[in-house]
Amino acid sequence: MIKCLFIGRLEKDLGLETYFQALDSLKLKADFAGDGSLRNKCQKYGKVLGFTDIKKIISNYDIIFTSSYLSILESLIHKKPVYSVYENSLKEDYLKMSPFSKYINIINNSGEISLDKKYSQKGYEWAKKQTWEKVTDIYIKLWQKYL
């Protein structure tokens, strides 16, 4: 059985409904590392872990659902395939303009989520080279056009 992990706040703006639809259609369960107003709904799809140290649990999962920059980095470091949902143009730009965009699956509907457990070796190599200085510079460049 494929094990999925969602990382992030359990809120509508992070695309949870899209992930729920994919879980339904693929007949999968997921664990949810985070908390928020959709906690009860998430419990229908799997276990809610609350806020937890991702580094300690991520190796137990096959596929990661997240759109957080640092969670994506952590997933790439652990050689996990990542699915990131966008539901608005700002999030789409954030994901598609990021330096890791070619190493993750950027989607806007549940039909784009597959059972492919293949990770990106190039994504892993890129993530290994990231430092706090590099991440800060990327954030500034990424968001500068909106400031």
Number of helices: 7
Q: Which CATH first-tier class would you pick?
A: Alpha Beta
Low-confidence stretches: none
Mean pLDDT: 91
Instruction: State the domain count.
Output: 1
**Strand tally, please?**
6
The CATH superfamily label reads Glycogen Phosphorylase B
Order of helices and strands: EHEHEHEHEHEHH
The neighbouring-strand order within the major sheet is 3-2-1-4-5-6
Using the CA coordinates, give the radius of gyration.
Answer: 15 Å
Calculate the terminal CA-CA distance, rounded to whole Å: 44 Å
Architecture overview:
The chain is α/β, with parallel strands linked by helices and 147 residues long. The chain has one domain: 3-Layer(aba) Sandwich (Rossmann fold), CATH 3.40.50.2000. It contains 7 helices and 6 strands. The chain has a 6-stranded parallel beta sheet with strand order 3-2-1-4-5-6, with helices on both faces. Helix 2 links the parallel strand 2 and strand 3.
What's the short version?
Helices cover 39% and strands 14% of the residues. It has helices at 16-26, 39-43, 54-57, 69-77, 89-96, 121-128, 132-143; strands spanning 4-7, 30-33, 46-48, 63-65, 82-85, 105-107.
